[in-house]
Structure formats: structure tokens, C-alpha cells
Amino acid sequence: MIAVTRKLVDAVGASGHVRRFHAKTTIRDNTVGEHTYGVLWWLRIIVPDDELTKSLLLAALQHDMPEYVTGDIPAPTKRACGSAFDKLEESVLAELGVPFATLTPDEETWLKLADIIDGMAFCVRERELGNSTLRATFVNYRAYFSAHTEGVLLSLASARTVVKILEERFYDGSK
Description:
By secondary structure, the chain is an all-alpha fold. It is built from nine helices and two strands; from the N terminus they run αββαααααααα.
């Protein structure tokens, strides 16, 4: 159990309201709270039941919580920072008394795929609302999905089906 402190309570309250995609023009905001909900649901949809572990769900729940300190950092910036950014996130969680989730390589892949799929789904919703400015972002997410599934020995049929549906909706604009 995590020790309840004022700082933790404040962080939980603040982290869900952090705005994502702040460097992009969007019709509606997407918050860390909405994104976390999406990631949890995408995990439920794409991960086989026997692989959907408590550790994976807890990691999904807290994966962007440190953004209440850092703000939403675009993926290319995170990659450029490398392990320094990971250490910053770990230190934010440690300061709150939240253990950094330890995942198996397969669980890390599942979490990354759910995170990517949720980003793609946000782009689709924006496109359907008339925002044509997120095409490059959608294409980048699709490329990330391909890069993170190449050579992976997981059962990816559900994840690939979700991505196919999102691609169809994004490119033809239909619901």
C-alpha cells in the first residue's frame, strides 16, 4: 500500500488535468486523465486475459502521473532525453512514495502499444471533428506501432485490428 500524504493527494488531483498535445492545434483538449482511461481500456481490449496483470494495470495507471511536474513532453523530446527523462519520472514517483512499476518486456510492449493506440484514437476523434492538422502525428503513431510490433512474439491480432479500424476511420473520415 502507498502511504497517503498531502503531496500524493495533490499530485493525484493535479495529474489527471495535465493537457496533452499542447504543442499541436486541437479542437478539444485531451488530458492525462482521459488518456489514462483510454490506455487502461486499450489494454483490456488488446491484451489476452491471462497476460493482463495487476502490475501492467498499475503501470498504466501511473505511466503519465509525473507529467503533473513535467507537463506533457512530446515523444521525440522524450526519446532525445533518453534515460535522463526516465530517471526524472522515477524521481517524481519516488518523491510521492509511488514505486516505479517493474514490468516484464512483454508487459512493457503491451503498455507502449496501448499508449500508441490511444494517441491514434485521439487523432481520429480530432479528424472526425474537422481537424486536418494532426495527419503527421497520426502517421508518426502508426510508425511507432509498426516499430514496436516488428519481431514481437505476442498475440497482436486484437491490436492490429484496432489499428486497422483507426486507420480506416482516419483516412476516410467515417465513423
